[in-house]
Amino acid sequence: MIRIALLSAAVVLTGCSAAQQDDLTRRAAKNAIRPVLEQRLPGVPVEPATDCIIDNANSKQLLALATDAVTGPTASTAEIVTNILAKPETLTCLATKGLPVLLK
Fold first, then answer.
1. DSSP secondary structure string, the chain?
2. What is the pLDDT of residues 47-97, one digit of tens each?
3. Percentage of residues in the chain having pLDDT higher than 70
4. pTM
5. Among candidates 1, 12, 50, which has minimal Cα distance to 29?
6. How far is CA 80 from CA 12, 23, 31, 37, 39, in A?
7. Nearest-CA neighbor of 49 among 58, 67, 57, 37?
């Protein structure tokens, strides 16, 4: 089942431009990140935090997260999200984009 889903995703991505592939990957990855954030960081604004994580993930992390969106979040998903959250750039992003939402 998982193999079929991944194969289907690969076929869909093959017909897309690089920009479209990147956009699809990022959107899929967001679907894996949101549940992790909701569970591990309750009360944190999910959308700004998700955007910060996506913007600071490398391509390997994005692909892994996009795959996890198909199969469902796992311990690996949480580990990837945690590693990205620990980056100074992500923390800066959260401070500038996430905190203002909390203060409204």
1. -HHHHHHHHHHHHHTS-HHHHHHHHHHHHHHHHHHHHHHHSTTS-HHHHHHHHHHH--HHHHHHHHHHHHH---HHHHHHHHHHHTSHHHHHHIIIIIHHHHH-
2. 999 999 999 999 999 999 999 998 888 999 999 999 999 999 999 998 888
3. 76
4. 0.77
5. 50
6. 25, 19, 14, 12, 15
7. 37
